[in-house]
């Protein structure tokens, strides 16, 4: 089965391509490399012995989309491509709506012209905003989002809902990721943020390897057991497998399918710092700082729907997430 993977050179897309190849699927990548490097292709080859067909281009370029659909017989699309930095989205909302919302509409329009009916979309737990209670299940209200990035994900979800309603033959799956972290266990592939990392795990990893002096812990006065924010961290390998499980279970089943992909377990910032110290064998310097605007206290998934309907469950714990991140970061201190 051939699957177009937009954003397949990025963090989650690259790990998903590896797992797809291992599962006998054939990924075809479309990526404009705005947040990734071509070296990723060699790493995929090192791990799997295969190099996916790669088109360097933009999801907003109708010509390249039509070219791919005519040259490759694509069965399904996994759509990772997009911009993802919350802070940057506040500064550059136009770019975020253009890339994430307009880009997705261009992609779906080209899919429809080519008669490709199966789409898996990278959504985010951010669509739940600040939920009234945890754990969060798929029926928890969405839309109470606080920044343009989150709003772009919410808007795409709503557009896809309408598109699927009008084209009932389509299978559209919204995967709401919790907090993806970790790296390929080989240490060959991992997250390679450009500039100062926005997210906790890559920041801790850069402190551990000496690229940054200390971690700023954003808030220790939340109503959580140790006062720091609690999130549902999910290993990127589990997340990658979740996409394959979704393709297998519902990729050919018409309808709008929505799943949380998390572990169902929350960990605090300080628990993540401890797990990382254990993995790298030394302390991680940190300073307690004020809360980061827009952050919520706690967030973790009710994963029972994915377990039941996708026959998928996260396997890796925080210890493995830290160990694998450290293996990647220490072998590739400057990334790819
Ligand atoms: P990433 O930036 O590593 O990967 C995205 C890839 O898409 C990059 O390789 C980039 O070059 C490419 N890209 C961006 N805009 C493009 C365009 N217009 N045309 C073609 N290629 C384009 O990000 P990631 O962490 O792998 O995230 C993948 C998806 O998952 C994104 O849609 C993101 O919003 C979503 N998501 C990520 C997280 C997270 O914490 N990493 C959480 C929830 C959801
Ligand atoms: N966080 C932190 N310092 C950082 C980055 C993040 O203390 O440099 C905290 C943040 O406040 C939140 C948790 O780590 O409680 C996860 O943040 P991240 O940005 O990774 O994910 P998200 O906010 O999207 O859940």
Can you characterise this structure?
Its EC number is 5.1.3.2. The structure is a single chain. The chain has 336 residues and is an alpha/beta fold. Helix 1 links the parallel strand 1 and strand 2. Helix 7 crosses helix 11 and helix 9 packs across helix 11. The model has no long low-confidence stretch (mean pLDDT 97). Bound molecules: nicotinamide-adenine-dinucleotide and uridine-5'-diphosphate. The site of uridine-5'-diphosphate (UDP) has 14 residues, from helix 7 and strand 8.
Count the domains. Answer: 2
Strand order of the largest sheet: 3-2-1-4-5-6-11
User: How does the overall form come out from the CA principal axes?
Assistant: globular
- Computed over alpha carbons, the radius of gyration is 19 Å
Unreliable sequence segments = none
> What ligand molecules are bound, each kind once?
nicotinamide-adenine-dinucleotide, uridine-5'-diphosphate
Largest sheet composition: 7 strands, parallel
Distance between the termini: 29 Å
Q: Give helix and strand order, one letter per element, not per position.
A: EHEHEHEHHEHEEHEEEHEEHEHH
Structural class: alpha/beta
CATH architecture of the largest domain: 3-Layer(aba) Sandwich
CATH topology of the largest domain: Rossmann fold
Helix content: 40-55%
How many DSSP helices? 11
* Percent of residues in beta strands: 15-25%
Protein name: UDP-glucose 4-epimerase
Subunit structure: Homodimer.
GO biological process, one term: galactose metabolic process
Catalytic activity: UDP-alpha-D-glucose = UDP-alpha-D-galactose
């Amino acid at each position: 089965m051939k699957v177009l993977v937009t954003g397949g050179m990025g963090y989650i897309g690259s790990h998903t391509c590896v797992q797809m190849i291992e599962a006998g699927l054939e990924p075809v990548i479309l990526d404009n490399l705005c947040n990734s490097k071509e070296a990723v292709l060699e790493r995929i080859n090192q791990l799997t012995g295969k190099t996916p067909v790669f088109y360097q281009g933009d999801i907003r370029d109708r010509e390249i989309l039509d070219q791919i659909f005519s040259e490759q017989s694509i069965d399904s699309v996994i759509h990772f491509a997009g911009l993802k930095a919350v802070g940057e989205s506040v500064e550059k909302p136009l770019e975020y709506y253009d890339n994430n919302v307009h880009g997705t509409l261009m992609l779906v329009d080209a899919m429809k012209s080519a008669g490709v009916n199966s789409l898996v979309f990278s959504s985010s737990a951010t669509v739940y905003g600040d939920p009234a209670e945890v754990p969060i299940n798929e029926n928890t209200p969405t839309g109470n989002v606080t920044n343009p990035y989150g709003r772009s994900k919410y808007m795409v979800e709503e557009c896809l809902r309408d598109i699927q309603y009008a084209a009932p033959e389509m299978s559209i799956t919204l995967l709401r990721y919790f907090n993806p972290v970790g790296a390929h266990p080989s240490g060959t592939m991992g997250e390679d943020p450009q500039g100062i990392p926005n997210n906790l795990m890559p920041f801790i990893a850069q402190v551990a390897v000496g690229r940054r002096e200390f971690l700023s812990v954003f808030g220790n006065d939340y109503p959580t057991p140790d006062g720091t924010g609690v999130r549902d961290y999910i290993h990127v390998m589990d997340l990658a497998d979740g996409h394959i499980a979704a393709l297998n279970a519902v990729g050919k089943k018409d309808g709008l399918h929505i799943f949380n992909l998390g572990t169902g377990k929350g960990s605090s910032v300080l628990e993540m710092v401890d797990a990382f110290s254990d993995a790298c064998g030394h302390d991680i310097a940190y300073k307690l700082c004020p809360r980061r605007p827009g952050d919520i206290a706690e967030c973790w998934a009710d994963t029972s729907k994915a377990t039941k309907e996708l026959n998928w469950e996260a396997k890796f714990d925080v210890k493995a997430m830290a160990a694998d991140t450290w293996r990647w970061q220490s072998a590739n201190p400057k990334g790819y």
